[in-house]
Amino acid sequence: MGVISRDAQVSETMQSLRRIFKALQDYSQEVSSNFGITGPQLWALKMLSQHSSLALGDLSRKMYLHPSTITGVIDRLEHKGYVVRDRDLDDRRVVKVKLTPAGKDLVAKAPNPVQGKMIYGLRKLNKSELTVIYESVKKLAEIAEAETVKATFFFDQE
Fold first, then answer.
1. Are 54 and 48 within 8 A, CB to CB?
2. So what CATH class is 6-143?
3. How far, in Å, CA of 28 to CA of 42, rounded?
4. Domain limits of the chain?
5. In whole angstroms, what is the distance from residue 113 CA to residue 12 CA?
6. In the prediction, which pLDDT does 120 show?
7. CA distance 76 to 85
8. Which of 83, 85, 77, 74 is nearest to 104 (CA)?
9. Mean pLDDT, to the nearest integer, of 32-36?
10. Per-residue pLDDT tens for 69-112?
């Protein structure tokens, strides 16, 4: 492929960003209308389905989210009957979360979260590829003057 112009690079960058945002938005709407939960709630359920149970701190690390954000998500999922909290038998201070049968059933039917796909893909990159994306996305946030915007999830009001 030959050298492309600056205008073409800007155009293609904007188009790629639109596609990413659209995929995230479509996913969020699909999950909400088909399953009655938010995209982040489904993402948490999918993460929990990969383990018999997880401490809240471990779940927040696996999802790259702040523990207080995860607590709110788990509260909502527990209220809906998809997860239960258990105290660890060895250390009563540790609260573990696991899926209920209803949670397992929902996970089996639902599509894979876009956020999870993105994290999986980013984790597979070599260090130099990841650094280029990290620096580029950080620069995009600066350009959009969005470095201080508080955001926990894509297209969600958790």
1. yes
2. mainly alpha
3. 10
4. 6-143
5. 25
6. 85
7. 12
8. 83
9. 89
10. 899 999 999 999 999 998 877 777 888 999 999 999 999 998 88
